[in-house]
Amino acid sequence: MRRFLVWSALAALVGLILAGGGYWAYWNFYARFQPVTITRNQAEIQRLLDEASWVSDGGGGQPLYVVGYRDSASTMRYEREETPKLRAGGVETRVILFARDDREGQAQSTPAERATIAELWLTRDWTLYQRWTATPARNWTAAGIPQADGNLARRAVVDASRQFNNRLNELLSGAGIQPRYPIILWRDREGFLKACACSDSRSWTFIRDDLGAPDRIDPVTAQDAPVPPVVTPGDGSPETLPYPNLPPIPGQAPPMQPGQTQPGPALPGQVQPGSPAQPGQATPRLSRPTQPSAPPAAPAPQKSDDTTFF
Asked: Which long-range contacts (CB under 8 A, 24 or more apart) does 177-181 make?
C-alpha cells in the first residue's frame, strides 16, 4: 500500500511538472505575443487616437496606429519593415511620436527631437518625418525648425505629446498591456479594438493575419518584366513598306550609275551634261579635247675635253 501511494504521488508530481511546463511553453512562445482585445475604455482610447497629430503617407485604407518615440529601434524597424506589407493589404499606417518624460531630472530627449516633435504635431508633415527617420538620431540637428525650448506654445505641444502617451498607457494597463514600444492599435474585421505592445517581432505576424496583409512582398525585377513579342515577317504582323522611287529633283544632275566617273569642271563656254540651259541661250556643242602635241626632243650632248654638258 505504501508503495502504491509513493508511486501515485510521484506520478501526480510528474504530471503537474509536465502541465506547468506545457503551459509555460504555450505562454512564452505563443500566447504572450498575441494581441489583446480591448474591452474597457474603448471610446476614450479611440478619442485619444483621433485627436492626436499622427503622420501618414496616405492610402485611405483601414487605419492602424503606431505609437512610439524616435530612439526606439523596434518602432523604427516596425515602420520600415511592416508598413509596405500593411499597405499591400489595404491598411493605412498612422505614426504617433512623442517626446519621453524626464527621468530623475535628466532629459530623455534632445532639443532637436523636441523641436521636431512639436513641428510634426503642428504640421503633420510626412516629408519631414521621412527626413528625420532617414537621418541617424545623433546627426539630426533640426535645421530650419523653430526650437521648442524657450517657446511657450511649442513647449506646450511637446507636453501634449507626453500627456497623450501617459494617458494611453493608463487606459491600456487595465487590459494587461505593458508600455513597450511600439504600441500598435487597430480594429479587426468585426470592429473590435485591439492593441499590442509589439517590441518583439514575433508578435507582428498576428497583426498581419488579423488584417489580411501578406507576409512578404517580392520586389519587381527586370527579369519579371514582360518581354515584348518578336515580330517575324510572314506571321501576319505589319512589315515595313518599300522605299519609294522618287523623281529627280529639277535643276539637279541625275545620280551617277555604277562605273561612271565624276565629270570635271566645265570650261568657259562649255556646259556639263545634265545642267539646264539658260533662257534665251543656245545650247553649245560639246567640244572634243585636243590631243597634246609631241614633246620637244632632248638636247644632244656636247663633248668637251673635260666634261660633258647637256
From this structure: 177/36, 181/67, 181/68, 181/69, 181/72, 181/74, 181/75
Predicted model pTM: 0.64
Q: In the numeric block, which cell numbers belong to residue 55?
A: 503622420
64: β partners: 93, 186
CB 86 within 8 A of CB 211: yes
Contact 33, 206 (CB under 8 A): yes
Per DSSP, the residues of 127-140 read HHHHHHHHS-GGG-
Least confident of 11-25, 38-52, 63-77, 243-257: 243-257
Strands 91-97 and 36-37: unpaired
Q: What is the DSSP string of 220-279?
A: P-GGGSPPPPPP-TTSSSPPPPPPP-PPPPTTSPPPPPTTPPPP-PPPTT---TTPPPPT
By CB neighbour count within 10 A (0-12 exposed, 13-18 middle, 19+ buried), where does 57 fall?
middle
CA distance linking residue 142 with residue 134, whole number of Å: 13
Say which residues have a Cβ less than 8 Å from residue 198's Cβ, sequence separation at least 6: 74, 78, 180, 182, 183, 184, 204, 207
Is the omega angle on the peptide bond into residue 182 within 30 degrees of 0, that is, cis?
yes
Coil, helix or strand at residue 19? helix
DSSP state of 203: G
Of 35, 66, 93, 90, the closest CA to residue 212 belongs to: 90
CA distances from 171 to 67, 164, 270, 278 (A): 14, 11, 111, 106
3-state secondary structure 113-125: HHHHHHHHHHHCC
How high is the mean pLDDT of the chain?
80
Those residues whose C-beta lies under 8 Å from the C-beta of residue 55, and which sit 6 or more positions away, are 94, 95, 97, 120, 124, 125, 126, 129
- What domains are defined for the chain? 30-216 (3.40.30.10)
Between 185 and 284, where is the model more confident? 185
Assign residue 185 a region: left if phi > 0, alpha if psi is -120 to 50, beta otherwise? beta
